[in-house]
Design brief:
With about 150 residues, the chain is mostly helical. The chain is about 75% helix and about 0% strand.
Length: about 150
Amino acid sequence: MRSWITFLLPEDEYKERKMLFFFAESGVLLFAVLAILLVTNSYFTFDAGTVLLLGVALFLFYITTRYMFAGIEYTDVVTEKAYRKERKVTFLRSLSFLGIFVVLYAIFLGIPSDRGEWMDVIGISMITAIIMFVTTYISLKRSYKKNKELL
């Protein structure tokens, strides 16, 4: 079945089905949170921008977390050698992201002028690179365990 959402889904039928479940679960969770916010609106006042940001963040965070822990991203990692190779690639990708982020920051926002600004740039980019590595590593490890169990 073709839909406008098809471009967001993977080609693999199993992954596509799982992703559709994740989208649906996240939508139901978002509906529940928004309903709770609507009911509690008379007790607490929430800015519309905050509610929208919370809703979008919740939706994306849930889908990303479910996908990461599902172990469906790395279907070809079955052997220990492939696992180690992919782990190294993940680490190098995170390091390259760190370097690219710092360079692009300097290009678009200018080179930091003092030590405090440098610490801000490096701190944000390092935290982002670490989060990127950890989430990818968790997904890789779960995929590897799941693939080994299927053999």
